[in-house]
Design goal:
The complex is a heterodimer of chains A (432) and B (574). Chain A is mainly α. Helix content of chain A is 72%, strand content 0%. Chain A has 23 helices and no strands. Chain A has helices at 34-49, 54-66, 70-83, 89-99, 103-116, 121-133, 137-150, 155-167, 171-184, 189-201, 205-215, 227-233, 239-251, 255-268, 273-286, 289-302, 309-319, 323-336, 341-353, 357-369, 375-394, 398-414, 419-431. Mean pLDDT of chain A is 90; it is low at 1-13. Chain B has 574 residues and is mainly β. Helix content of chain B is 6%, strand content 36%. Chain B contains 7 helices and 44 strands. In chain B, strands 1, 34, 35, 40 and 43 form a 5-stranded mixed β-sheet that branches. In chain B, a hairpin with an 8-residue loop joins strand 22 (326-329) and strand 23 (338-342). The radius of gyration of chain B is 22 Å and the shape is globular. Chain B starts with a strand and ends with a strand. The model of chain B is unreliable at 10-43 (pLDDT under 50). Classes of the chains: A mainly alpha (432), B mainly beta (574). At the A-B interface, helix 1, helix 8, helix 10 and helix 11 of A face strand 13 and strand 30 of B.
Chain lengths: 432, 574
C-alpha cells in the first residue's frame, strides 16, 4: 500500500490558463460520457477566453459539481467568489460543497453569502444545520428561528428546532416543532421518523408507531426547495442523472417532466435499459399503454434480467390484448423469479381465457402454496380461485370446484376478509 | 472460588516487535516510527503506539478482491476475518476471507508467534464474505459459519483445527448474498443459533457509473435488499430456518453489520443490524422466539437528522460507563460515522456531535470498527477501517496504473477516548498508510495483555498491528504499567464458553460492564474473551455475571494482569 501523499492531488491535471491566471481545474474524464466531455470542454474554452470573469468560473464550477467532480468544483467556485465578490451564489454554492467535507470550514462561507443576501432562507437554514453539526446549538437555534421569521413555511427550520429540543430532552416541544415540519413537508421521511421518535420520548409510543409505520412508504431521498442548488443538478448530462431527475419529478407527480428527462437521457445513451424501463413506467401511469409497451420491450431486450422488466412487459402485453405474448413473457418472468405470484395469476388468467384448464389449475395451486401476503395479490388469487370454481360447477365438476373454493376460503379466512362468509356458504352449497 | 487464573502468554513475535520498537533491529523502511525520546514517554498519559509487524509474522498472502473492468460489486465489499483459537493450543489463529474462488487463507499461529499457512490441511479452502465463530455442536471447540455471495457454508472443527464441511447435513446453505453473521442462543436451549445479515439481490449485469458517466461499482440502492435469516440450532445436529416465524422477514434491507446482545437488559438477547442506505434494525426479542424491530422509536434506525445512512460495520461497548451497551456504526464518505448512546428506557440518542466523532470520518468510508481499550487506561477507544466504495472526489494516492484502487484508498482511524470525547490519534504510521480496508478485529495475539489489531485490506496483505503502547513511568520500555484483565466465561454444562454473558466488574474506579462477545465490526469474528483496561488499579473487587440462561452469580475479585476464567455454577447465586 502507498503512503498518504503530503499534498492533495487537486490540481494534478489542471490545464493552464493564459499568462499568470489561475489554472483551470480539469477532472479526469477517461470513461466519461461524450456529452459530459463536450460540455466541460466547451466551458473550459469559454474560461480560457475569459479568465477574469467570475461568472464564467462559477458556471464551470456548476457543471463540475453537477457531475460530482467536487474538488474541481470547489476550486472553480473559489475563483468565482474571488473575481465576483458581490455575487451571492458563488460563496453559497462553495459553502454547500465545503460543508460536505467540513461543517466548520463552511461556516464563514455561508456567512459571506448571507452577508450578500440575508433573506435567502435555504442558505440560512444550511448555516443553522452546519452550526448544529459543529455543536453550536444555541447559535443554530438562533438561525433556525431567524429562518422561520424569514420563511414561516420553511419545514427545515421547524425540523431543526424540533431536533434541538429533542436532543435537549424537551420531547413535548420537539413534537410541536416536528408536527409543523411534517405538516409542511408530508413527503419528508426524515421529519416523520424524528417525529415518531419524539412521540415515543414524550410517552406516546402508540402514536409514534403509527407515524413510523406510515413513514415506511416515504422515499429515502428528501428534496429541498432551493432553486440555486437545484439549478446545479439540472446541469448534469450523464444518463444516470437524467434518471435521477426523472425519479424526483415522479415523486412530485410531475409525469410530463419525468418523461422529458427520460427521453433526453435516452438521447444521450440509448443503451441504458433503466432509462427505457423508467419511461415505460411513466407512460403507463400517463395513460399511454402503447408507448409504455414499446419502452418496456426495449428495456427487456437490452437487459432481460433487469429487475421488474419481464413482469412489467408481461402486464403491458396483456393490457394491449396480445395474450399469447403476455403468456410467454409471464412464463419467462416466472423462470427468472419462481415466486412471483402476480405472474402466476397472469399465467392463470390467460390460460383460463385460452381454455387450458390443466395449466390454470396447476398454476393457481402454485400461487396458493406461495401464500401471498400482499393484500391486492391475495385478493386477486381469491377471485381467480372463485371464478375457476364457478366454471367447474358449471361443467358439473363439483369435487374439483369444492377444492378451489376451499383454497379461496382458506386465504380469505387468513386475511380476515369479508368474503370469507360468502365463500363458506358457497362451499357448503357446492358440497351439497 | 469459581475463578481460574490463566497465565498470560508472551510469544516470540512480541519480542521481535519489541526489538523493533526499541530500535534494536532495523525496521522495514517506512513502517516504524522512531522511538519516542525518553522524556516523552515519561509523561502522564500513555503514548499509544501500534507497529505493523505483518512482514515478520508469516502472514504473506494477498487478499484478492476479484475486481476487473466490469466493476463487480462484491469485489469492493469483501475482505472478512476470523480470529480464534482453531486448534485449541491457547493462541489465536487467523482466517482471511476473500470474495474470490480459492481466495481464503487460514493461518495457524505457532509456538513463538509466527503464522503458517494451513489452509489446505485445515480444509478451509474457498471463498466468502464474512463469518461467525463459536462452538455450534457443544463439543468444546470452535466451529466456523462462512457467509458468501452464493450459498453459505458451515465448517465443524474436529478439535485439532481440522474442519469438515457440514453445510448440507446442517442445512446451512443460506442463499443470496450474506454479509456478517452473529451467534446467539435466543431460545436458551444451550445451543448457539445464527443470525445472518443479508445484503442485496445483486445483478452482475447492472452497469453503474458516476463522475460524468465513468463506470464505477454499483451501490445498494441499485438492487432490492434481502431479508435476514435466523437459523435455529437443533441441538447441535443441524439448522432450521425460523426467519419467518421470528418476524425478521418483515423487512428486506441491505444488511452488512450485525451484533447480538441484550440491549435493554430484559434478559432476552436482541439483534442490531447496520443496513446500507436503509434504516438500521433493532430487533427486540419478545421472549417467545419473535423479534420486533423497534429501531425507529428507540432512536437507532436513523441518525440525528432522521436520515438512513450507509451502515457498514458496528462497534459495541459501554463507552460512557453507564452499564449498558452503546453502538457505533460506520458509514460512507460525506456521512459521519454515528455513535448511538444507549439511554436504556427511551432507547438511544445520536451523540456523535457531543463525542466529537463526526469530523474525523466525514471524508472517509468506514467499514470494520471496534471499541477497545488501546492503552489499558480504563476507557474505550475506537479503531476504524476505511476504504471508498466509489471513486473518491479527491484521490489520496497518485495513480499507479496497475489497479483502479488509487482512487479508492484511504487511511484508517484511531480515536482515543479523552473523558468522553474522541480525539483523532491517526497522524502517524501505521494509521497514515493508505489501503482499502474492510474487516478489523482487536485481539491479544501475543498474550501480553493489550489488544493488537488485524485489518483486512483488499488486494493487500492483511495487516497485523502490534500494540506497543508506552505507558507512563515505564521509561522507554514496553513494560505494561497500565493494568488489565481478560475475562473468559465457561459453562461446564454446555462444555463451551458462555457467549453473550454480561459481566459487571467492580473496579476501584467504579463498576464497569463488559460482555463475553466478539467485538462486532464488519464481516468478522473475534474472541469472546472480555478485555478490561484497569489503569493503575492492581486488582478488582468482584464480578457479577448474568449468564445467557438468566442465572446471575457473583464471583470474588482478582488481581490485575491475568486472564480470569469465570465458571458457571461456581459463583454465589444472586
Amino acid at each position: 500500500m502507498t503512503a498518504r501523499p503530503l499534498t492533495v492531488l487537486l490540481f494534478a491535471a489542471a490545464t493552464v490558463a493564459p499568462s499568470g491566471a489561475q489554472p483551470i481545474p480539469a477532472p479526469r474524464l477517461d470513461g466519461a460520457e461524450a456529452a459530459v466531455r463536450q460540455r466541460l470542454a466547451s466551458l473550459q474554452a469559454d474560461l480560457r477566453a475569459n479568465t477574469g470573469n467570475g461568472d464564467a468560473w462559477g458556471r464551470y464550477g456548476m457543471a463540475l459539481e453537477a457531475h460530482t467532480f467536487t474538488d474541481e468544483a470547489i476550486a472553480a467556485y473559489r475563483q468565482a467568489h474571488e473575481l465576483s465578490p458581490r455575487t451571492f451564489r458563488w460563496p453559497y454554492l462553495l459553502a454547500a460543497l465545503v460543508d460536505e467535507r467540513s461543517a466548520a470550514d463552511s461556516l464563514p462561507l455561508y456567512r459571506a453569502a448571507l452577508a450578500l443576501d440575508p433573506d435567502y432562507a435555504p442558505a440560512r437554514v444550511r448555516l443553522a444545520e452546519a452550526l448544529e453539526r459543529t455543536g453550536q446549538f444555541d447559535a443554530a437555534n438562533r438561525e433556525y428561528e431567524q429562518t422561520r421569521r424569514l420563511d414561516p413555511a420553511n419545514a427545515h427550520a421547524h425540523a431543526g428546532l424540533g431536533r434541538l429540543a429533542l436532543n435537549a430532552g424537551d420531547a413535548d416541544a420537539a413534537v410541536r416543532h416536528l408536527l409543523r415540519a411534517r405538516d409542511l413537508a408530508p413527503e419528508n421521511r426524515s421529519f416523520a421518523v424524528t417525529l415518531a421518535q419524539a412521540y415515543a420520548r414524550a410517552g406516546d409510543r402508540e402514536r409514534g408507531q403509527q407515524i413510523a409505520a406510515a413513514a415506511r412508504s416515504l422515499g429515502r431521498i428528501n428534496y429541498r426547495d432551493d432553486p440555486i442548488r437545484s439549478g446545479v443538478h439540472d446541469l448534469a448530462l450523464d444518463a444516470r442523472s437524467y434518471l435521477r431527475r426523472a425519479n424526483a419529478h415522479r415523486v412530485h407527480g410531475a409525469l410530463d417532466l419525468a418523461e422529458r428527462e427520460l427521453r433526453a437521457g435516452i438521447d444521450v445513451d440509448a443503451s441504458r435499459p433503466e432509462l427505457h424501463f423508467g419511461l415505460a413506467e411513466v407512460l403507463a401511469v400517463s395513460g399511454d399503454p402503447v408507448g409504455s409497451l414499446d419502452a418496456a420491450r426495449r428495456a427487456y431486450e437490452l437487459h432481460p434480467q433487469l429487475e421488474g422488466a419481464a413482469p412489467f412487459l408481461a402486464r403491458a402485453l396483456f393490457q394491449t390484448g396480445d395474450l399469447g405474448a403476455a403468456l410467454a413473457m409471464a412464463e419467462e418472468a416466472l423462470r427468472l423469479d419462481a415466486g412471483d405470484v402476480s405472474m402466476m395469476l397472469l399465467v392463470a388468467l390467460v390460460s383460463a381465457e385460452r381454455g387450458d384448464v390443466v395449466r390454470t389449475v396447476e398454476i393457481l395451486d402454485h400461487a396458493y402454496q406461495a401464500r401471498p401476503q400482499d393484500p391486492r395479490t391475495r385478493e386477486g388469487l381469491i377471485r381467480l380461485l372463485t371464478n375457476v370454481g364457478e366454471a367447474m360447477v358449471g361443467s358439473g365438476l363439483s369435487d374439483a370446484a369444492a377444492e378451489q373454493f376451499e383454497k379461496a376460503l382458506d386465504l380469505a379466512e387468513e386475511a380476515e376478509s369479508l368474503e370469507a362468509a360468502g365463500l363458506r356458504r358457497r362451499l357448503a352449497q357446492v358440497r351439497r | 472460588m469459581g475463578t481460574r487464573a490463566l497465565r498470560p502468554r508472551q510469544g516470540a513475535i512480541a519480542g521481535l516487535a519489541l526489538a523493533l520498537a526499541l530500535g534494536c533491529s532495523a525496521p522495514p523502511e517506512g513502517r516504524v516510527e522512531p522511538a519516542e525520546a525518553p522524556g516523552a514517554a515519561a509523561t502522564a498519559a500513555p503514548v499509544v503506539r501500534f507497529v505493523d509487524v505483518t512482514a515478520e509474522s508469516g502472514i504473506d498472502q494477498v487478499l484478492p478482491s476479484g475486481t476487473d473492468s466490469t466493476y463487480p460489486m462484491p469485489a469492493v465489499m469483501g475482505g472478512g476475518l476470523a480470529v480464534f483459537d482453531a486448534d485449541g493450543d491457547g493462541d489465536l489463529d487467523l482466517y482471511v476471507i476473500a470474495p474470490v474462488p480459492g481466495g481464503n487463507r487460514f493461518y495457524l499461529q505457532q509456538e513463538g508467534g509466527a503464522f503458517t499457512d494451513a489452509t489446505a490441511a485445515a480444509g478451509l479452502e474457498g471463498d466468502g464474505m464474512g463469518c461467525a465463530v463459536g462452538d455450534l455442536d457443544n463439543d468444546g471447540d470452535l466451529d466456523l459459519y462462512l457467509t458468501r455471495v452464493g450459498p453459505d457454508r458451515l465448517f465443524l472443527n474436529d478439535g485439532d483445527g481440522v474442519f469438515a464441511d457440514r453445510t448440507e447435513a446442517w442445512k446451512a446453505a443460506v442463499p443470496g448474498w450474506s454479509s456478517s453473521a452473529a451467534l446467539l442462543d435466543y431460545d436458551r436451549d444451550g445451543y448457539l443459533d445464527v443470525y445472518i445479515a443479508r445484503y442485496v439481490a445483486f445483478d452482475p449485469a447492472r452497469v453503474c457509473s458516476q463522475h460524468g458517466g465513468r463506470r464505477d461499482f454499483c451501490g445498494p440502492t441499485e438492487f432490492e435488499g434481502l431479508s435476514d435469516v435466523l437459523l435455529h440450532n437443533l441441538g447441535g445436529t443441524g439448522f432450521e430456518d425460523v426467519s419467518a416465524a421470528a418476524g425478521i422477514t418483515a423487512v428486506e434491507d441491505a444488511g452488512l453489520g450485525v451484533v447480538a446482545a441484550d440491549f435493554d437488559h430484559d434478559g432476552e438477547v436482541d439483534v442490531y443490524v447496520a443496513n446500507d442506505a436503509d434504516p438500521n434494525n433493532l430487533w427486540i426479542h419478545q421472549g417467545d422466539g419473535r423479534f420486533l424491530d423497534d429501531g425507529v422509536l428507540q432512536g437507532s434506525a436513523f441518525n440525528r437528522w432522521g436520515n438512513s445512512e450507509a451502515g457498514m460495520g458496528i462497534a459495541v461497548g459501554d463507552a460512557d460507563f453507564d452499564l449498558d451497551l452503546d453502538l457505533f456504526v460506520t458509514h460512507l464518505i460525506t456521512e459521519t460515522n454515528t455513535y448511538y448512546r444507549n439511554l436504556m428506557l427511551p432507547g438511544f440518542e445520536d451523540a456523535t456531535i457531543d463525542t466529537e466523532l463526526g469530523a474525523a470520518s466525514l471524508d472517509l468510508t468506514g467499514f470494520g470498527a471496534a471499541f477497545f481499550d488501546a492503552d489499558n487506561d480504563g476507557d474505550l477507544d475506537l479503531a476504524v477501517a476505511n476504504g471508498a466504495v466509489k471513486r473518491r472526489p479527491s484521490a489520496l494516492a497518485a495513480p499507479d496504473g496497475a489497479t483502479v484502487w488509487s482512487d479508492y484508498v484511504e487511511p484508517n482511524l484511531l480515536l482515543l477516548n479523552e473523558d468522553g470525547r474522541f480525539v483523532d490519534a491517526s497522524a502517524r504510521s501505521p494509521w497514515t498508510e493508505l489501503g482499502l480496508s474492510r474487516a478489523l478485529v482487536p485481539a491479544d495475539f501475543d498474550g501480553d495483555g493489550d489488544l493488537d489489531l488485524v485489518i483486512a485490506d483488499l488486494d493487500g496483505t492483511p495487516r497485523l498491528l502490534r500494540n506497543l503502547t508506552i505507558h507512563p513511568g515505564a521509561g522507554n520500555t514496553n513494560a505494561p504499567t497500565s493494568n488489565w484483565l481478560q475475562i473468559r466465561t465457561f459453562d461446564p454444562r454446555l462444555r463451551r464458553e458462555a457467549m453473550g454473558a454480561r459481566i459487571t466488574v467492580q473496579t476501584p474506579d467504579g463498576a464497569r460492564l463488559v460482555h463475553a462477545l466478539p467485538p462486532g465490526s464488519y464481516l468478522s469474528a473475534g474472541p469472546a474473551t472480555a478485555h478490561l483496561g484497569l489503569g493503575a488499579a492492581e486488582a478488582v473487587q468482584g464480578f457479577e455475571v448474568v449468564w445467557p440462561d438468566g442465572l446471575t452469580e457473583r464471583f470474588p475479585g482478582a488481581a490485575a494482569d491475568q486472564i480470569v476464567e469465570l465458571i458457571r455454577g461456581e459463583g454465589q447465586p444472586k
